[in-house]
Specification:
By secondary structure, the chain is an alpha/beta fold. It has 2 domains: about 180 residues, Rossmann fold; about 180 residues, Rossmann fold (3-Layer(aba) Sandwich). It has 12 helices and 15 strands. The strands form 3 sheets. Strands 10-9-8-11-12-13-14-15 form an 8-stranded mixed β-sheet, with helices on both faces. Strands 1-4-5-6-7 form a 5-stranded parallel β-sheet, sandwiched between helices. It is globular, with a radius of gyration of 22 Å. The two termini are about 45 Å apart.
C-alpha cells in the first residue's frame, strides 16, 4: 500500500483499549488515542464518533484529516459485543473518510464474522474443498455475513485490513476483492518458533530427545509446517493427526496415513500442537489423549485466537495437557479471571509490537526502531515455568 506521505494517526474504537494504545505508541504517536477521536453516544443511544479539532479553527472544515493515514485498531472487548464493535468500526471509518483522510486502514487481529464465511448458494464463498448438499443446507436461511461485513467496510471508506492468522480462505479472497488498498493476513509462525527456540516450553528440543510439532487436523497442517520451517532446528519433526467427527461434540483422533512421523516416533518426546483458534477444546483434548497413550512427554498447545469459554476451560483442564501458549489477539485472555483455572498452564504472547512493525512496513514507513524481541510474555505466577522465566 502506497501511504508513505502524510501524517499517521492511530485511533481505537474504545478510548481505553490497551491494545490500541500500545499500537499507537509503537507507531510513534505521541498523542493519546483518547485525545484524537471522541467516541460519544447520544442520549438516544446512537453512536457518534468525532475526530477532535480546535473549535476556534474555522479553516479546512471537513478536511481536517487531509493527507492523513488513519489506522483504526479494533479488538474484542468485555464492554461491547462484536456486533457493536463492528458498527463502531464502520462509523469511525466513515468519520475519517468524511473528513478527508487519505487512507483508512483497519487493524482487527481476530477478524469479525470470519466463521460466517459462506452462504447457502454456490456463489457464496470460494472454499478450498468441494461443497455438498449438507454444507449448503448448513447455511440455509443465513446471510453471507463475512461478505456483507467486507462490503460495508469498503462502503464506509476503508481501504485496507490487517489481521492475524485468519483461518478462512473464503474470507481472505473476498476481503482482497473488496479492499482497494490490500488485505494483510499476518502469520504468528515466526513468533511461536522464536518462543519455542528461546524458552523452556519444550525441554526435549534442547536435551537431545527431539520434539514433535503436531497438526490436530487437516486444516492445521499448513501452519504446523510453517512453524517447523521457521524453527529450522534438528530434532524437530512433524506429526499429522486426522479426526473423525461423529457428532457436534464427539471427535475421534488418529494418526494420519500421510503423516511425516508415525506413532512409533512419539514415545518420550515433547509434543506441541498447533491451531489457529479454539472455541470448545474437544479436538485438542482427544488429540492429547491419543498422544499421551502413545507415550508423549510434555504436551503444549499453541493457538493464536483463544476463546475463553466455559467449555474450553473444562476440556483443556485435564492432566493430558501441560501448557497453553496463545496470543492476545483476543485481549480478554490477559485477564486472570478469564483464564480461570487454566492460568496454571497458560502463557500469553503479546503481539502489539510485532503487529506495529508490519503495519509500518505495509504503509511504507520506517520500522527500524522496533527491535527484537517483538513480543512480550505474560504469565501467571501460578504457572510452574514462571520462576524459571525470571531466572
Amino acid at each position: 500500500m502506497n501511504a508513505e506521505a502524510g501524517k499517521l494517526l492511530t485511533v481505537g474504537t474504545e478510548s481505553d483499549n490497551p491494545f490500541a494504545i500500545d499500537i499507537s505508541a509503537y507507531c510513534g504517536q505521541e498523542t493519546d488515542i483518547a485525545d484524537v477521536v471522541s467516541l460519544k453516544t447520544f442520549a438516544n443511544s446512537e453512536f457518534c464518533p468525532r475526530f477532535i479539532s480546535d473549535e476556534r479553527y474555522l479553516e479546512n472544515i471537513g478536511n481536517t484529516l487531509r493527507d492523513t493515514v488513519v489506522v483504526v485498531v479494533s479488538t474484542g472487548s468485555s464492554r461491547y459485543s462484536r456486533n457493536e464493535l463492528a458498527w463502531r468500526n464502520l462509523m469511525v471509518t466513515r468519520a475519517a473518510h468524511d473528513n478527508g483522510a487519505r487512507h483508512v486502514v483497519l487493524i482487527e487481529p481476530d477478524l469479525f464474522f470470519s466463521a460466517q464465511d459462506r452462504g447457502p448458494r454456490p456463489e457464496h464463498g470460494e472454499v478450498d474443498t468441494p461443497r455438498n448438499e449438507n454444507d449448503y443446507k448448513k447455511f440455509d436461511g443465513q446471510a453471507f455475513t463475512s461478505l456483507l461485513y467486507a462490503q460495508l467496510l469498503a462502503l464506509a471508506g476503508l481501504n485496507a485490513v490487517i489481521t492475524v492468522h485468519n483461518h478462512s480462505t473464503s474470507v481472505q479472497r473476498l476481503f482482497r476483492q473488496q479492499m482497494s488498498g490490500g488485505f494483510l493476513n499476518l502469520s504468528p509462525a515466526e513468533v511461536f518458533a522464536d518462543y519455542i527456540r528461546t524458552s523452556d516450553v519444550a525441554p526435549s528440543l534442547h536435551n537431545g530427545k527431539g520434539m514433535l510439532l503436531c497438526a490436530p487436523d487437516k486444516g492445521a497442517r499448513t501452519f504446523a509446517d510453517e512453524v517447523h520451517s521457521e524453527l529450522a532446528m534438528p530434532g524437530a519433526d512433524v506429526l499429522y493427526i486426522a479426526k473423525e467427527r461423529r457428532g457436534e461434540r464427539d471427535v475421534s483422533s488418529f494418526i494420519a496415513e500421510d503423516s511425516p512421523s508415525s506413532i512409533d516416533d512419539i514415545a518420550g518426546r515433547d509434543v506441541i500442537i498447533f491451531d489457529d483458534m479454539v472455541r470448545t477444546g474437544g479436538t485438542i483434548r482427544e488429540c492429547c489423549r491419543l498422544l499421551k497413550a502413545a507415550g508423549a512427554g510434555r504436551m503444549a498447545f499453541f493457538v493464536t485466537h483463544f476463546y475463553s469459554s466455559q467449555e474450553v476451560r473444562l476440556n483443556l483442564h485435564g492432566p493430558e495437557l501441560d501448557e497453553i501458549v496463545t496470543t492476545n489477539t483476543i485481549p480478554s485472555i490477559l485477564n486472570r479471571d478469564s483464564q480461570g483455572r487454566l492460568r496454571r498452564k497458560m502463557t500469553v504472547l503479546k503481539l502489539e509490537k510485532w503487529i506495529s512493525r508490519y503495519v509500518l512496513e505495509f504503509l511504507g514507513r520506517p520500522a527500524g526502531h522496533l527491535a527484537a524481541p517483538l513480543y512480550t510474555v505474560d504469565m501467571s505466577s501460578k504457572n510452574p515455568r514462571w520462576q524459571s522465566r525470571l531466572a
